[in-house]
Amino acid sequence: MRRTTITAAVAVLALTTGCGAADMTKQASPFANAQGAKTVTLSVQSWVGAQSNVAVAQYLLEHELGYRVDTVQVDEVPAWDALSQGRVDAILEDWGHPDQEKRYVDDKKTIAHGGDLGVTGHIGWYVPTYLAEQHPDITDWKNLNKYASLFRTAESGGKGQLMDGSPSYVTNDKALVTNLKLDYQVVFAGSEAAQITQIKQFAKEKKPFLTYWYAPQWLFKKVPMTEVKLPVYKDGCDADPKKITCAYPHTPLQKYLNTDFAKAGGKAASFLKKFQWTTEDQNEVSLLIADKKMSPQDAAKQWVRSHPSVWKAWLS
pLDDT of 92-111, one tens digit each? Predict the structure, then answer.
């Protein structure tokens, strides 16, 4: 994920959602910090799991609490700037950005912790399970060079291809390939959506592939994948991005709120702090959006109708 250096996701929101999020990298929402108005502005990250969080939160804020909700799409690091400046009120899924957390939460105090999302994220390298069954030892990184020829593509320059998603994601993969002396080339698909398309095509043809991927993610239900064991993660082993030789951590995903909104956001702020669900909940909504091609609003509505015992606690 990465994202403690970790991050997963998708740069082309339009391919997986119909929520119409605007690009907020340079633009401010007209509803953020609207004085006296029942409005909330939520940052939408580009991967489908994050879209699921926002869709359900938006549905409940609008239909149960009577708020007007604006959603805006911002890349991971710029989203922290937007949150600090009050251009958005909340980020509902952060995979770990210690530099931004120190700057805005600890030092400037313009951003406040919003609590655990309830979902633990993990980034790793994966091969399709059908390949792992054919070559059981391929799931140990020490044996990857032995199989590099299986993963060669036109884009990998004679080396094995390690497929990543968007260059904007936080990823240690180039350093890992270099430091572990692997005969592989990191090739970016460009977005989560493009990466999913490639994975599905490889799987349809039962071809070998090695990919950077992450959990939770609905695609595991459609394309079973087995994680390749990298050197064990230990606290601090990823402190120097250039010297990393360890696996990605398991990261409890966090919510963050603009500090002023956290203090004066009323029922909306209280609701977002209490918003907490499971990996299974998130994957249920994600599958409806990305695989069943439902709009995020309709997917959220279906989940809300089926799980009142979960979300009613967020309103108390």
Answer: 999 988 889 999 999 999 99
DSSP sequence for the chain: --GGG-----S-GGGT--S--EE-SS---TTTT-TTS-EEEEEE-SSHHHHHHHHHHHHHHHHTS--EEEEEE--HHHHHHHHHTTSSSEEEEE---HHHIIIIIIIS--EEEEEEEEEEEEEEEEEEHHHHHH-GGGGBGGGTGGGGGGGB-TTTTTSEEEEE--TTS---HHHHHHHTT-SEEEEE-SSHHHHHHHHHHHHHTT---EEEEEES-GGGGTS-EEEEBPSPP-TTTTSSTTT--SPPPEEEEEEEEEHHHHHH-HHHHHHHHH----HHHHHHHHHHHHTS---HHHHHHHHHHH-HHHHHHHH-
What is the rounded distance in angstroms from the CA atom of residue 168 to the CA atom of residue 78?
11
What would the pLDDT profile of 151-169 be if each residue is shown by its tens digit?
Answer: 999 999 999 999 999 887 7
Count Cβ atoms below 10 Å from residue 52 Cβ, excluding itself. Answer: 31
In 3D space, the residue among 114, 128, 139 whose CA is nearest the CA of residue 228 turns out to be: 139
The angle formed by the CA atoms of residues 204, 209 and 212, to the nearest 5 degrees, is 115
Tokens of 266: 């009323």
